[in-house]
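User: Let's play a game. I give you a shape written as C-alpha cells, and you guess the letters that built it. Ready? Here's round one.
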C-alpha cells in the first residue's frame, strides 16, 4: 500500500498533508512566487559554502518545479505521467539540503513552522512553498469522477476496524485501539481524503492507497469472516451489503467503504490480535500507528520484527529495505541519514517524524467520534 517501490517511484504517502485550497500567491517573476534564499555570511569554510550553495540551488529547483506544474494546471495542459513525482523529489532535495546546511551552520536553524517539521530540516520562511505544494497535490490527487464517497468517512474506518477486530477475538478496549490505529493509517495514506488518486503512482489508489491485488486479497478475506460479523453486528453487515450493491463491477478501491474494508483485511486484520502486546511495547498511540504504517511500507521485515524477541532492537540492514524507507521519507533528509546502512525499529519509528502531524489529526478525530 502507498508508494513502496525502491525504484523511481517513491509514499505516501507520504508527502505532507493535503488540503483542498487554492492559494492566491502574488505573481513575482516567471513562477508566481519568491522565497528568500539564504544569504552568504562572511568567512565560511569550504564545507559551509558548498552546503549553502547546494541549499540555494535546491530551493530554486523546488520553486521552479512548483511554478511549472501550476502553469500547466492553470492552462489546462496535459500533465506528464506521475506529475507529482518531480515535486516530491524536489521537496525532499530541498529539505535534505537544508539539513546539511544546518549541520554545517547550526545558526541557520530558525523558528518553528506550522507543518511541525523539525526546524533543522525546514526554513519557516518557506512555508508558502509547502502550501503551494499541498494545493497542487490536492488537484492532482483528486478522486476520479466515478468514485463513490461516503458522508461519514472517518466513522466508517472506525466501525469497520472495530467490527474486524471483534471478529478476530479482541475485547472492546483492544478493538478500540485497533480502530484508532486504523484511522491513523487513513490519515497517513491520504491525509484523511477519501477515494484519493495518486499523482506519484499508477498502481495505488483509494482511501487506503492499495494496489489491485491487495484489494482483491482483502475481498477474499472479508468474505471468510462476513458471516461472523453479520451475527455480531447486523447493522454493519447491512451497510456492507448496500455498498457491495452500489459498487457493483466498479473497482472496489473507488468506493470508500469497500476500499477501507479490503485494505484492513488484506494487511492488518491478522495483526489485530497482537494489539495488546504491541501496546505494552509501544504505549504511545502514535508509535502504534507508525508500526502499522510500516506494515504497508516494509511488511515482511515488520512482521519478522513482531515475532522476534525484541521488536525495538530488531535491525534492518538490507539495502533494498533501507531504500523503501527512504522512498517513504524515512532516513531521507541530510547526508548522515542517507548514508545509513542499517537501523533498528526504535530508530525507524523515531525517524518517522513527518507522520506525526497526520497521526495527531487522527487521534483528535478518533476522540471526536468516541465522544459522539
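Assistant: Ready! My guess for every position:
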Amino acid at each position: 500500500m502507498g508508494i513502496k517501490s525502491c525504484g523511481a517511484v517513491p509514499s505516501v504517502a507520504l508527502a505532507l498533508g493535503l488540503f483542498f485550497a487554492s492559494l492566491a500567491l502574488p505573481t513575482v517573476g516567471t513562477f508566481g512566487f519568491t522565497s528568500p534564499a539564504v544569504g552568504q555570511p562572511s568567512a565560511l569554510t569550504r564545507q559551509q559554502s558548498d552546503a549553502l550553495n547546494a541549499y540555494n540551488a535546491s530551493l530554486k529547483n523546488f520553486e521552479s518545479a512548483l511554478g511549472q506544474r501550476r502553469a500547466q494546471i492553470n492552462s489546462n495542459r496535459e500533465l506528464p505521467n506521475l506529475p507529482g513525482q518531480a515535486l516530491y523529489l524536489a521537496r525532499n532535495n530541498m529539505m535534505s539540503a537544508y539539513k546539511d546546511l544546518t549541520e554545517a551552520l547550526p545558526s541557520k536553524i530558525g523558528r518553528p513552522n506550522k507543518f511541525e517539521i523539525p526546524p533543522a530540516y525546514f526554513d519557516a520562511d518557506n512555508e508558502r512553498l509547502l502550501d503551494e505544494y499541498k494545493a497542487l497535490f490536492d488537484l492532482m490527487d483528486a478522486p476520479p469522477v466515478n468514485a463513490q464517497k461516503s458522508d461519514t468517512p472517518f466513522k466508517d474506518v472506525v466501525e469497520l476496524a472495530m467490527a474486524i477486530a471483534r471478529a478476530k477475538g479482541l475485547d472492546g478496549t483492544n478493538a478500540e485501539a485497533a480502530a484508532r490505529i486504523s484511522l491513523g493509517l487513513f490519515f497517513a495514506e491520504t491525509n484523511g481524503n477519501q477515494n484519493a488518486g495518486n499523482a506519484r503512482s499508477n498502481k495505488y489508489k483509494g482511501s487506503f492507497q492499495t494496489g489491485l491485488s491487495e484489494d482483491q486479497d482483502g475481498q477474499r478475506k472479508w468474505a471468510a469472516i462476513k458471516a461472523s460479523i453479520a451475527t455480531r453486528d447486523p447493522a454493519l453487515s447491512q451497510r456492507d451489503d448496500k455498498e457491495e450493491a452500489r459498487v457493483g463491477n466498479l473497482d472496489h478501491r473507488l468506493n470508500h467503504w469497500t476500499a477501507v474494508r479490503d485494505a484492513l483485511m488484506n494487511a492488518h486484520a491478522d495483526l489485530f490480535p497482537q494489539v495488546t502486546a504491541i501496546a505494552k511495547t509501544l504505549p504511545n498511540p502514535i508509535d502504534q500507528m507508525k508500526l502499522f504504517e510500516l506494515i504497508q511500507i516494509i511488511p515482511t521485515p515488520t512482521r519478522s520484527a513482531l515475532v522476534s524477541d525484541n521488536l525495538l532492537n530488531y535491525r534492518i540492514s538490507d539495502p533494498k529495505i533501507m531504500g523503501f524507507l527512504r522512498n517513504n521519507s524515512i532516513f531521507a533528509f541530510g547526508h548522515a541519514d542517507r548514508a545509513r546502512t542499517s537501523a533498528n525499529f526504535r530508530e525507524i519509528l523515531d525517524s518517522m517524524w513527518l507522520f506525526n502531524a497526520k497521526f495527531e489529526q487522527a487521534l483528535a478525530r478518533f476522540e471526536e467520534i468516541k465522544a459522539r
